[in-house]
Design goal:
The protein is mainly α and 221 residues long. Helix 4 runs antiparallel to helix 5 (74-86) and helix 6 runs antiparallel to helix 7. The chain has twelve helices and no strands. It starts with a helix and ends in a 14-residue tail after the last helix. The chain folds into two domains: 1-90, Leucine-rich Repeat Variant; 94-221. The radius of gyration is 18 Å and the shape is globular.
Length: 221
């Protein structure tokens, strides 16, 4: 590993505890390993890494995210997400390929949801021109992907922009309809997709009650 990846890993292990590791593993029902570091400790570790290594470039950050993600440890993968979140202004639409790979491997709400809400959505908002068009086409494809977690990411990604009045509710409706139009791949739970749709609708009903989203977003039979 690189020096900065070693620094992050060592800090996460120091912040961990066996009882929190066992508790979180049981709560999340995950096959990943757990150090037992809190979410606050993960965020603090990434802040400390930024202070210790202040001149990280785009390529440094994306490479570091892959290094952290490479081992099946929950806190390392969460740290990769926090790192990308902190570097959204530096990211390109081409980075969605790497992030899509993370989504496919995550298979866990506690990782997929922050990837969608805190990284993919803000990344999309920061783009313009042809880069924005390419990114939107990628999410159009994700909405009907065989992988339910990829569909979930496409549905959750625009939530904060729509909530703030900057997003496109019609695009969310189209993604929701596409996400439930075809059965997912073998052995996958379609409830993961419907749950994401319900989450967005509930949130928008609270924060944007003036919106009248179509009833055919996929929750009706």
């Amino acid at each position: 590993m690189s020096d900065v990846a070693d620094f992050v890993d060592a800090a996460l292990q120091r912040e961990g505890s066996w009882y929190r590791a066992e508790s979180e593993k049981a709560r999340l029902g995950s096959d990943l390993e757990f150090y037992g570091a809190s979410v606050g400790a993960v965020r603090g570790t990434i802040r400390d890494a930024g202070r210790r290594y202040p001149k990280l470039t785009h390529d440094d950050i994306t490479q570091l995210s892959s290094e952290l993600w490479a081992l099946p440890v929950f806190e390392r993968r969460l740290a990769a997400i926090v790192l990308l979140q902190s570097a959204v202004p530096m990211l390109f639409n081409s980075d969605l390929t790497r992030i899509e790979g993370f989504v496919r491997e995550a298979r866990l709400r506690a990782l997929v949801d922050p990837l969608a809400l805190d990284v993919i959505g803000p990344l999309l908002e920061a783009l313009d021109g042809k880069s924005r068009v390419r990114a939107e086409k990628a999410l159009d494809r994700w909405a009907s992907d065989d992988d339910v977690w990829v569909r979930r990411a496409a549905l959750l990604a625009p939530l904060r922009a729509i909530r703030a009045g900057r997003g496109e509710p019609a695009r969310f409706e189209a993604h929701a309809a596409a996400a439930v139009a075809e059965p997912p791949g073998p052995g996958q739970d379609p409830g993961i997709v419907r749950e994401a749709i319900s989450f967005v609708l509930t949130d928008l009903a609270k924060h944007r009650p003036e919106l009248r989203l179509s009833a055919n977003v996929g929750l009706t039979d």
